[in-house]
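Quick one - inputs below.
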Amino acid sequence: MPRYPAPPNAPAKVRVVTLRIDGQDIGAREDESVLDVAAEHDIRIPTLCYLDGLSTWGGCRMCMVEIAGSPKLLPACSTQVAEGMEITTNSDKLKNYRRMILELLFAERNHVCSVCVSNGHCDLQDLAVECGMDFVRVPYRNAPYEIDSSHDLFRVDHNRCVLCTRCVRVCDEIEGAHTWDIMGRGVECQVITDLNTPWGESDSCTGCGKCVQVCPTGALVKKGTAAGEMEKRDDFLPYLTQMRGNR
Amino acid sequence: MSKTITINPVSRIEGHAHITLHLNDAGKVDNAQFHLTQFRGFEKFCEGRPFPEMPALTARTCGICPVSHLVASSKACDHLLSVTIPPTAAKLRRLMNLAQLAQSHALSFFHLSSADLLLGMDSDPKQRNVFGLLAVDPQMARDGIRLRQIGQTIIEMLGGKKIHPGWMVPGGVNEPLTEEKRQDMLAMLPEGLEIAQRTLKSFKKVIAKFPEEIKYFGNFPTMYLSLIGSDGSLEHYDGYFRIKDSNGAMVEDMVPLTDYERVIGEAVEPYSYMKFPYYLPAGYPEGIYRVGPLARLNNCDFCGSPVADAALDEFRQLQRGEPVSSSFHFHYARLVEIIFSMERMQELLEDPEILATRVRARARGNRNEGIGVAEAPRGTLIHHYKIDDDGLMTWANLIIATGHNNLAMNHGIKQAAEYFVDGKNLQEGMLNRVEAVIRCYDPCLSCASHAFGQMPLKIELLDASGIVVDELVRDSPHSP
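Output:
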């Protein structure tokens, strides 16, 4: 369910709850997510698929937190706060899981930072640094993935895709084209344009480039960029979301 | 009984290799082979990648000379874009290439080879290294480190990193030079020139101690291949191919760089992962030639800067005006080129155009085949790419500077081994001389490991006494 847009004239009948995050007593609106409340109080929870301005998907599991009384870990992005919650965001267990998620992402496809166009401007790379992932403990799959360079302006390199679905969501929710979608299951999953036609032959793509700007890695990029040159900007998203209102 | 000596690993070189010397019953060397034992596979895994990634990708071939690959690859990409890059971009690339030349030559001469020259070929192997040099001649060790630092610092100032800077891109460079950095670079160059001159002076005093090495360290007639400026000047970034024979007569001149396949053929041998390029019209292996500093100085008409030109005149007197044929003099040529690089960098930095801010031409792939050639410290480097209409690589061939010298290195170690190695009375210093021949060429083996088509393969089954009882041979379809 999209978290945005919030209707500008929505009734303000929302209760306030009190909870505790990492030992800090906090008051929050009951319709907020743990991630939002933590961010409001400068408590950093790592995220990858989450992007302010898009609907919440909860697929990457980087933002998992521990909640007292719950036997399982819960994603902070898609868990609403509740009265009396006791939340831990940065235990050794969570750190270990986050690092493991990153290791599996790096091992699954072919993320070679040194020669990547997004080197130095990549969310996945930044997370690896933040979470201290200095090496990968599982064997790399080294499976070859295709590159679709048929679009006039942009390119998709599936070797560097982490299946965060930001492109799918921005294309559907903001641009309204729904060019992108997901095909396949499990390790065979892949983002596709239209009904798996080459991007350059897509009837629905407007060429707006929003998918490229929100992609966290070097999977969706502008053509003609050399290593380290692909800097992205997604700051337009909350603004676009607000301007669109409910339309 | 015949015997084989293996020198493994060859020390104080860049990369991994070993040498085998086959001795006859009399303990004399029958044959010598230089084996590159590592395999990289760059040409293959570049396939399918977008071509703008190629400069950074191929630069990872090497941490010593990444700039050389950046230059050749960026030029091949310029060719694919079908653009003439802005003049300032070409000057900036030339500047970085010269800084790389200086730092790499300094590494070869001071860090890798000077211990042989100053401590002696027969000195204690435990001392015969850069630390031994520090003990015997701290000034020279400091000079070497400082010279390398000057080159590396200029690379860092231009590209943001000393190793693998990402600044050189298809169409030019991605950031112009600032006045502040220009001044900082200019401030370092006089010291670099002074060190280079001082080192050449001491080297000239030392060479008198090595008459036998000069005579037998790869001293034989070959052709010489290098780039040359349109006016016949010493050239490292662009220009044309020139090939001279062992007497200095012109074999090929003003050959456009994109015509390299007309003059250069490639062969493979079963005992090495390094290709054997040769002068195509002369056939294999008769088309043996050498590249690198020795070839560049033998081929050029002049350097184009005063101190280097004076040094070039003296260099030419080594063989009374004939091309200098001993590979030992690669060291000499290297020092002359360091002088040249310092002077030429100064000239480039004093050109007001170097600060212009238009440093990149923008285009997409406008042709399907691109060739980029430049002079790496070790010799001529060729990158040749083919792309599809979407800009993805379909084929790549890299001809590496060290590879051009492969035939000559094999001849060189055979010549030195025949003269110096006595199998009946083997001394460590004898084998060090064989290694020192290889060091003259300053091979970069991590760069030079490139397969060509299907590698030929030879499997030998030996009995306990080393006698070959069976062998299986797969020839390469590309063997000449």
